[in-house]
Write a structure and sequence with these properties.
With about 150 residues, this protein is mainly α. The protein is about 65% helix and about 0% strand. It has six helices and no strands. The longest helix has 24 residues, at about 110-135. The protein starts with a helix and ends in a 14-residue tail after the last helix. Residues about 140-148 have low confidence and may be disordered.
Length: about 150
């Protein structure tokens, strides 16, 4: 049986050749389905797309190192509060991330792969959501449930 980390890494390897096209798709999806978050971002998204891509690569590269990933996500959650992000935004981000990965992964995207990413994003939501709460962002009822 393939582990969740192996599925996350292998599916990311399938999308990695597309680089920031993945993050372009992500932001297009996010802003189309959740236009209320658009004001939280700069008008020109080039630098933001690059930063997101680097963060994804770092996360996937360390996905089995829970301590390192937790430190990384804790810092991201805290910083994002400064941009107006709250834990309530995390489910929309997760849905758009999954849509982008699925779009570019091709045959590497299976129901098992999706379940692995849902689990990983649940952890992302939990860690970033708690960091956002500590930094002063209001918490929705769903943070900490592992859904995202």
């Amino acid at each position: 049986m393939t582990s969740q980390t192996e599925l996350v890494k292998s599916s990311f390897a399938a999308v990695e050749p597309y680089g920031t096209q993945v993050t372009e798709y992500f932001y297009d999806h996010l802003f189309e389905h959740h236009p209320e978050v658009r004001p939280l971002f700069a008008e020109h998204m080039g630098e933001q797309r690059d930063r997101l891509w680097q963060a994804l690569r770092a996360l996937v590269g360390k996905v089995e190192d829970t301590e390192a990933v937790t430190r990384m996500l804790d810092g991201l959650g805290t910083r994002h509060v400064g941009y107006g992000a709250t834990p309530a935004h995390l489910p929309a981000v997760g849905a758009s991330l999954l849509a982008a990965l699925k779009h570019f992964a091709g045959t590497a995207w299976t129901p098992e792969t999706e379940a692995a990413w849902v689990a990983v994003y649940g952890m992302i939501t939990d860690v970033m959501g708690r960091a956002m709460e500590r930094a002063g962002a209001p918490a929705p009822a769903s943070v900490g449930t592992g859904h995202g």
